[in-house]
Amino acid sequence: MTxxxxxxxxxxxxxKRSLLxxxxxxxxxxxxxxQPIMFVLLFVxxxxxxxxxxxxxxxxxxxxxIIVQSMTFGGxxxxxxLSEDLKKGLIDRxxxxxxxxxxxxxxxxxxxxxxxxxxLTVMLGVGFxxxxxxxxxxxxxxxxxxxxxxxxxxxxxxxxxxxxxxSSPEAANAYGFTFLFPxxxxxxxxxxxxxxxxxxxxxxxxxxxxxxxxxVRALFVGTPAGNHVWLAVAWSLGIIVVFGLLSVWRxxxxxxx
Length: 257
Fold this sequence. Notes:
The chain is mainly alpha-helical.
């Protein structure tokens, strides 16, 4: 087997390890399913009647934003897992094994991709139940789903860096939500940017999360796409590169190499 083959094999083994953790800790499923469902129900049935979205029913406006938010936070398991492995010294044990060092990170983020597929399926099912419908053709919908998964994978690397930086799993969880929650709410995910105060609108308009939401919304329900799709892809790839490099640097620092 070539070195690439070994790297792929090691990555798959560690991805499987990460996925097996979920059935053993069912409470992790709350973050993938119950919490996003609660957001959908609260915004649609509690806040939806008070929010004006010209040209779209609020549920069609909301669901792409909720989905992108859910993809963004899907990597919290990576942050918790890496922080816990460091705390327990498991990373040091991995160093003693004949395995590809990068597999510790790539395996975690690959597992996030698998859980994001499950989460996306749940979110679309809930969306259909509350009245959401696609308004574009099949290629656009497929492109939107692919973009959602790319966004989720990108933010898995953000959470990987957070997990390697935080002093404990609890701190990793707190850091992730503290930094990313404002990013998701000061955006076009839940309300039109024009409804925000004038001083806040430029912040929301230039928020990369707004570009991602607007891109998915364009692909799912046919709102004007502009440059949103390409910008969303560019932001996602940029996040992968930057936080991938930062995670590798932090991983080497954490294990003393």
